[in-house]
Structures are given as C-alpha cells and as structure tokens.
Amino acid sequence: MTSDTGIWTAAAKSNAAAMVISDADGAIAEANQAALNLFGLEAVDIKGRSLDELCALKPDFECISSPFELDGQTWQSVSLQDVGVSREAAEHLAVKLKVEALGELAGNIAHEFNNHLSGASGFAQMALMKADDVDRVRVCLEEIVAATEAGAAQTARIMVFGRRQFYEPEPTTVGRHVADSRGLIESLINPDIELAMDIEDDVSKSLLTPGQLVEAILELCENAVNAMAGTDGGRLEIGLKRREMDKHDLRTFYDAVPGPYLCLSVSDTGTGMTDDTRQRMFDPLYSTQEVGEGNGLGMALVYSVFARSGGMVDVKSRLGEGTTITVLLPVVG
Amino acid sequence: MNLEDAHVLVVEDNAQTTRMIRMMLMDMQIANVLTAVDGVEAEEVLESGDERIDVILCDWRMPRMTGIQLLKRVRAKHPHLPFMMVTANADVESIKAAASLGVSGYIAKPFSPAQLKKKLVALLDTL
Is the complex ipTM higher than 0.95? Predict the structure, then answer.
C-alpha cells in the first residue's frame, strides 16, 4: 500500500504546475520538474537561492505561498501561476465587450432618439398640412412638446449614467440611510409581501451622494417587487453588514482592493432571471418590464451610482427561486 | 384595394409613434386601425380571428417579441399578408434578414405622411 507521504511527494514532483518549497527565510529547498523547466535550472542550481529573487525573474507569474509545519520547522509551499496569459486574455475580452457594449448602447440611444424625432417631425408635418385647423394644430403641438420633453428627460438620465452630471460624494452612513428608507420601501410593496430588514452596521461610511444612494436602494427594491409580482406573496430581504474582504473574497472583481466593505444585499423570492437577463440587466435601456413601464436605465443607474464610490455589484439569481443582489461598498474613514 | 377600405394593424411599443401613425392613417381616410403594443399582443389579435387585417405596420425593435420574430410567426400562417417594417435604424443585416423572411416592405423613421401613404398604396395595389 502506498504511504500517504509518498503519494503526495510523487504528486507534487510530477505536478504540471510549477511548485517550490522554501524555508522560513525564503531559501529554496525543493523544486518540482515544472519549476525547473520554468526557470531553466537544474535541481542543484535552484536549491538555496532566494525565492524573491527567483520570483522577480518571472514578472508574469504570481507566487502564492502557503506555510506549513513539518518536524517542528516552518516551510512555505509556493505555487507559481502564469497570470500573464490570463491577464492578456482578460484585456482582449475587455476590449471586445467594450466595443460590443458601445455598439449596443449607441444603437439603443439612436433608436430612442429617432422615435422622439420621428414624433416631433411627424406631428409638425401634420400640423402644417392643416395649419388653419386650430384644434388639430394644438394637438400636434402638444405631441411635439411631449416628444422633446421625453428626449430631454432621457438625456438627463444618460448624463447621470455617463457621469457627466455634477456629482459630489460625501462620507455617508449607509446603514442609517437604508433604515430611513424603510417607509419608502414599504410604500412600494403589496401587503402580501413580507419585508425583512437586518441592518447590522449603522455607523460605517462609504463615499456616496445620499440622495443617489436612496434612489439606488429604491430601484433595487422596485425590481425585487416587480420580480415577485406574478408570485403569491413573497419575501423582500434587505441586509447590511460590515466585512473585512481579502483578495480571495474579491477575486471575481477586477481591480478590487482588499479592506473593510459594507455589504448591502437585496433578496427577493420572485421569478429569478434567465442568464440572458442577468447578463444584460445593467445595460442602459435594457428593460424586462412591460411596455411603457420602464425605460431600462434603472439598473444601469444603480450600477453607476455604486461604481462611482468604488463599489461592486454581484448578482445571484435562480429561475423560479429568486434573486439576490449584493453591493460591496468600500468603507471610508 | 382602396386605401380607405384597408384594415390596418399597427404594432408599435412607442405610444407617441402609434398616435402619430394613427393620425396619418386617419388623414388618408383609413378608419379601421387596430393597434398592438408588441408582437405578443399583435399575435393575439391575429390568432383571435375576430378582426379583419389587410396590412400590418410593425416596429422593428420591441420588448418581448421583436418585429422580426413576429414576421416569422405571421409568415408561418399568413404567407401573403402584407407586412411592412417600420424601422428607426435601417441596418443592412436586419433588412436582409427581414427580406429573407418575406417582409413586404419597409419604411424608415422619421417618415412624412406622404411617404407612408406612398408605401401603403404600393402595398395595397398588390392585393
């Protein structure tokens, strides 16, 4: 029977991933074949060299150390991961997604504005066709005013999303604002929906504009309520807690900085989202709502409000079970 | 078919565009105008069989069911029903797709009452 130690030694030596073992001072004691191939060194040449010095030779590699104890001595097991390739792939993907998103955004905005222009020009022409019919001209003029107002309202919302609007964030006690919004949230929900709020932290602050924070919370709740519209009853849960987040906790977010975060979550027991909806939910102008009810900028605005404060938004959804949206906001002060 | 005898179904999610088209059609003495806010509602109108429909004027981009999806479904049951796409952005790929599915014609927004009339007369002449 193979000994436990023996099988692990053999596995580590033959592992396709480069791996070295160093002592507590960072001097290399052992290296597997993949590590020797990576550095182009023989076993005798690598032993005793400094781990930092070796890692510096490979800037595209990330050295992940985990300490362990053996026979009363501390060692470090270090795996070397090639992040250069994945970084490059991520950059290519980011460019591709950006171009696609811009194309879609431009298309949607063009479509919306063309509708407004089309209304204004169509009614203007119809007014001119019978310019002496005062009642008809009045109807047409009202339509023209409505078209231009709709266009202007849309411009204002796009400006918020496009970060062109005046914006002055301040350290804001998120918990207090969430708790204070309870009345507004209750006004959104039907009596058959149960509202549960769990605010663990009402002192920590994040850099936000209080008005926009409340608007974003209401938007999240409104979406949750809409998702439960077709179901019998339902439960809306709003939670806020403070957590220390390390690199591992934040691994799915690009460029996130470890530290204290406020985790604001809004959960519903509604219909849940399809993958397509989940992927498009933050697209400006994308809407799942009935015609005329939503203009789609809502979730894009939510994303924009939180992203400006260095926050991140995570969405977990299961069809038929519900959705949880968690916002991570870096704590300031 | 005479323009004023036509029964027109307008499928459009933008309420103002619907009102505009309705007024343009009324100016053409077309009294029988039905409206639907999207493809799903339009299909319900067609499926019910309660209404006579001679021509469909359909927006391209709509939630729930797009114009092109509606065209596909309409063509499966009504291969010869005149179906005109009303489009804000005439991108070549969409027009090609609509043509291959048997669209009868299209008109680009913004359009004048005269342009709409011309297109409709041409469509109804084929009936």
Answer: no
